[in-house]
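Troubleshooting: if your tokenizer reports a length mismatch, compare your output against this known-good record of 389 residues.
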Amino acid sequence: MLTKLVSKVFILVVLLSSFLSLFKFNYCRSTNWASPDNYVHACYTDIPALFYERDLDTNTFPYQSSFNSMEYPPIIGLGNWLISFITPDQFSDRWFFDINAAIAIILFLLSALLVKKMRPEYAYLYPLAPAVVASLFINWDLWVVAGAILAIYFFDQKKYEASSIWLGIAISTKFFPIVFLIPIAIIFYQHKKINELIKFIARTLLIWAAFNLPLAAIYFEGWWRFFKLNLERSSDFGSIWYALDLLNINLPSVNLLSIIFTLLLFTYLIIYLLKLPTPPTLAQVAFFTVVIFTTTAKVYSPQYVLWLTPLAVLALTNKKQQIKFWIWQGTEMIYHLAIWQYLASYTGATFGLPAGGYAIACLLRVAGIWIFTQEVMSQLAKKSTVNQA
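Known-good structure output:
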């Protein structure tokens, strides 16, 4: 009886957070996302913007153009193409946003329930995190979050076939879950399951190929545009590289530096995982891989907090860590407000945040997540040692 009541309250909290987020975005919806008001009121969203910019309003296939295709992997591109067919013609951008918002709420609820199933004692942190609530409808990130958490859930249940299928789907939605393969490989290695590792990677690649290869074969340039933009982009909003540029610390070869720092940090993570006395679960360590991926990347969009927060909750091992969790969430919220006010200034608003203030907010966010990450890594190592003893 009590368990059912707790579950109903939890679902209510998720829905209330969703509607609070909708309220935040409704100002822009009611003013047709006019700029710079959409930045001033922190309610910008890619969803209606790309509806027109990528010609989805005319039901154009999203990967047929070599220069104007959807800059996302196939599931997001094809999914939104299908949504465009059920979008009414009148006020179509608003309807397109509303349909996507409804889907996002369903996926938010699904991902929250999965987190609750795996970490019931900390699950409330995910729907109550202010930066999460503020970011639900910026982009299509909840599409990948649900698939990524399903991959983690099934992996820790030792249902490797289902896990690899969902991981392949997640990577075909947004690319970041590919970094899960690093701890997955370590965990299989520590359990001496090399054959299972090979099968897991093969199934993941097969699912990814099923979504990607047909598009690559027919519309290669349109399909490749996502990868090309990420490979060729210079330092961009939110990244440590962009922040350093704003502070007049000009580093040469940012592309190369980003790769080097990524490899160094992943090497450190691999050594850390191999030194743990007992093998961790994927839920405990997937967070670390995404922290590295987002920290060294050439861009950090505010909605990336949706990738990080549920994984952070899964990585928690004791209640004392919640203090640093909230400190980190505070820095994410500062960054969330800072980027919109910086973009407001960037696009000609009367008031906004100067470049120096935005750079400090970017670096503060990085400091916040690394303080929290180090705390979680330290506690996991202690717990692993106790478990071995």
